[in-house]
Amino acid sequence: MERTYVMVKPDGVQRNLIGNIVSRFEQKGYTLAAAKLVTLSKETAETHYSEHRERPFFGELVSFITSGPVFAMVWEGEGVIKAARQLIGATNPSEAAPGTIRGDLAVNVGMNVVHGSDSPESAEREIAIFFKEEELNDYQKDSNKWV
Ligand code: RTP
Ligand code: MG
After folding, report:
1. So which residues are the catalytic ones?
2. Which residues form the signal peptide?
3. Atom 18 (ligand 1) nearest CA
């Protein structure tokens, strides 16, 4: 079954948005495979965002993402990688459609409340950064038969 990495960023944790964000994935019909509140080290943050190493905002991005705890999650279900990106909305919240997480809950491109893996390769890489294999729960929910 397909899995993706989703993370409530420090601004989302500070603004009490964990429940709101988790709820959207649950209501859509996805299954939570793993979750934890964790404060990223500079090294982990740089590894996670390594594709942006050369970008002018990299320092700011790493400093922001390590500024407080994040809520790290693995979500599972049919087409979840692409669907998570759709639920999250455009990178810049000012361009994100209403109804999406960023469209509803954020204003600033730097503080856009949530991260979601952008491809199957990224999902696999990012899940491995944050979770050990034994932390990934493999279970069925009865409600899955309705979605
Ligand atoms: P994320 O990785 O955090 O889920 O966001 P994303 O895929 O929608 O966007 P991405 O291109 O991967 O950028 C990663 C994060 O860098 C910050 N950013 N700032 N100042 C800027 O122009 C700028 N561009 C990107 C954003 O916080 C974005 O989420
Ligand atoms: Mg990205």
Report:
1. 115
2. none
3. 110
Residue with the nearest Cα to atom 10 of ligand 1?
Answer: 91
Pocket of ligand 1 (CB under 6 A): 52, 57, 61, 91, 109-110, 112, 115-116, 118
Domain with 117 in it: what CATH number? Answer: 3.30.70.141
- What pLDDT, in 10s, does the model give residues 114-135? 999 999 999 999 999 999 999 9
Q: Measured between alpha carbons, how far is 13 from 66 in angstroms, rounded to an integer?
A: 12
Geometric angle at alpha carbon 68, from 91 and 25, rounded to 5°: 50
Residue 63 and residue 49 in contact, taking contact as beta carbons nearer than 8 Å: no
Q: What is the pLDDT of residues 53-107, one digit of tens each?
A: 999 999 999 999 999 999 999 999 999 999 999 999 999 999 999 999 999 999 9
Q: Which ipTM was obtained for this model?
A: 0.95
140 falls within a domain: no
Domain of 75 in residue numbering reads as 1-133
Does the residue 144 lie in any domain?
no
Mutate to test the pocket of ligand 1, among 54, 55, 91 (most ligand atoms within 8 A of CB): 91
Asked if residue 71 belongs to a domain, the reply is yes
Instruction: Give a yes or no: residue 46 inside a domain.
Output: yes
- The total domain count for the chain is 1
Global confidence as pTM: 0.96
- What single DSSP character describes residue 65? H
Residue 145: per-residue pLDDT: 82
9 assigned ligand-binding residue: yes
